[in-house]
Amino acid sequence: MRKIKIYCSSIKYYSLFNKLPAYITPLGLGDSDFPDDWLKERKGKNIMHLNQHYGEISGFYWVWKNVINKYKEDDFIGFCHYRKLWLNHLRNTKIKFSINSVYNDLLKDSNSIFDKVDIIQVQPIIFKNKSLLEDFEIIHKSKILEKSLDFLDEPIKSNFFQSLKGKTLFPLNMFIVKKPFFIQYCNIIFPWLEECTAYCEKNKLLSSYNIRLPAFLAERFTSFWFNQFNNKINLSYARLGNFFLSNKLNKYINPLKMPFTSRIYPTIHKY
Questions:
Q1: Which of 43, 160, 193, 211 is the most buried (most CB within 10 A)?
Q2: Burial zone of 161 (CB within 10 Å; 0-12 exposed, 13-18 middle, 19+ buried)
Q3: Mode of pairing for the β-strands spanning 119-122 and 232-235
Q4: Could you give the CA distance from residue 32 to residue 144 in angstroms, rounded to a whole number?
Q5: Collapsing DSSP states into helix, strand and coil, what is residue 222?
Q6: How far is Cα 223 from Cα 131, in angstroms, rounded to an integer?
Q7: Which is it for strands 175-178 and 76-81: parallel, antiparallel or unpaired?
Q8: CA atoms within 13 A on the CB side of 90
Q9: How far is CA 220 from CA 36, 41, 83, 146, 213, in A?
């Protein structure tokens, strides 16, 4: 039977993880203290020393190197973040009124889309007046994204560059894919990121907000990489605030299950 496993990365313990659907597994990144029942990046083959630069991408590496052989070819492997969870549908507007809870709107492993697709990407951001490359340079004050193309072989280099001239971004390094697609992605992105990181270090680019430049580069590449496949679909996501993440509150109730909370979702960016 097909398996669906979503790894939810976090650099801090949140008791909310204990109340999420069973197919979502917390993955503790970095060297913080996590409960015994959490998967921990520091146990197993890892690149934990790069987490400050790679962010959630170091978690991708851990899954690739430590647990990928547990999965069959038709199984789905996905990723989300402690503040950002997959929803069960694609919605283009916020829910104005609903008695549903956020929990009821979370992605279900019984969703029929898993019978139809190979790849799921998060709902895209579409820029109106700038390209993806221009946006990156405005935010990060750097030409590193354009330079990173030199570390890719053809035809990936040309195809990636064409995507950067476009205006559609599938953000957050969130995706759900079948096992072969994940392995192929890892075999390409990690050698590329290694060269990107070495260039950033040599040119002293990894500081302040740009300490995570490799993760931001990966966001653009991940968006491009999975979007080039045909058998794919998009789903919305919910960004959780402190109310939902509160460890004190989660001792007594599961705020995700409170009625009416789904009306503020999905998270939609307008540019």
A1: 193
A2: middle
A3: parallel
A4: 31
A5: helix
A6: 14
A7: antiparallel
A8: 10
A9: 34, 24, 20, 11, 11
pLDDT tens per residue across span 51-88: 999 999 999 999 999 999 999 999 999 999 999 999 99
Structural domains in the chain, sorted by start: 4-264 (3.90.550)
Residue 57 and residue 156 in contact, taking contact as beta carbons nearer than 8 Å? no
20 falls in which pLDDT band (50, 70, 90)? very high
Q: Bridge partners of 6?
A: 24, 78
Both tokens assigned to 188: 């390409």
> Where does residue 55 fall: left (phi above 0), alpha (psi -120 to 50 degrees), or beta otherwise?
left
What DSSP letter does each residue of 83-136 carry, written as one string? TEEEBSS--SS--SS-S--HHHHB--TT-GGGGT-SEEEEPPEE-SSS-HHHHH
Angle CA 84–177–196, to nearest 5: 75
Q: Which amino acid is at 196?
A: C
Tokens of 88: 């069960």
d(CA 232, CA 201): 36
Instruction: Return d(Cα 120, Cα 90) in angstroms, integer.
Output: 11
From CA 219, how far away is CA 175, in angstroms rounded? 11
- Reading the block at residue 101, the tokens are 């809870």
For 252-270, how does the pLDDT look when each residue is reduced to its tens digit (9 = 90+)?
A: 999 999 999 998 899 988 7
Contact 109, 176 (CB under 8 A): no
Q: Which of 67, 66, 24 shows the shortest CA–CA distance to 174?
A: 24
| Bond before 21 cis per omega within 30 degrees | no
